[in-house]
Design a protein that fits this description.
This protein has about 160 residues and is mainly β. It contains 1 helix and 10 strands; from the N terminus they run αββββββββββ. The chain has a 10-stranded antiparallel beta barrel. A hairpin with a 6-residue loop joins strand 9 and strand 10.
Length: about 160
């Protein structure tokens, strides 16, 4: 199988490359039905796959020195519908019925997904090539109010400094 050369990727696929790299984050976790409030650290490894058509992101969150949450995200770009997609599989074990979808607004990527439990919205804001901010909000089914879940600042690090993947 031949991989697609990066130079022939659509502009939407090329924008996904902002996620690629090794990242370390400091996070604020809000109290939710799933966890207590507090601080966390995280490590993220994201690789371009299939010539840049997809970005596969592995994420570990640590609280009190122990991995408290993990996720495996697959980002893509749906050209016919002009939207970014994100399939997420995580340590909570909920199987996603459909991917989160969203668009870029300048240097900000906003993705939303709904399930029987409610809606989730994740925002990635890129401060440059070496830092980004992420915010995750949740709106329980039957509610009109978005709740903070996690927010963090992530800085690019050497891939060799990331352990445990």
């Amino acid at each position: 199988m031949n991989a697609t050369p990066f130079s022939s990727l659509s502009a939407g696929h090329q924008r996904l490359q902002a996620l690629v790299g090794a990242w370390r984050g400091e996070e604020d976790v809000a109290a939710t039905q799933w966890t207590d409030a507090g601080a966390a650290t995280s490590e993220v490894l994201a690789d371009a796959q299939f010539g840049g058509q997809f970005v596969v992101q592995r994420y570990h969150q640590r609280r009190d020195g122990t991995i408290s949450f993990g996720a495996h995200n697959v980002f893509g770009f749906d050209q016919p519908n002009d939207v970014v997609t994100m399939h997420q599989f995580d340590s909570m074990g909920f199987v996603p019925a459909s991917p989160a979808t969203g668009t870029w607004n300048g240097n900000e990527l906003v993705l939303e997904r709904s399930s029987p439990r409610g809606s989730a919205r994740v925002t990635y804001s890129f401060d440059g090539t070496d830092t980004y901010r992420m915010r995750l909000h949740f709106k329980p089914a039957g509610s009109d109010a978005w709740q903070d879940m996690v927010s963090g600042l992530y800085r690019r690090v050497s891939p060799s400094s990331i352990n445990g993947f």
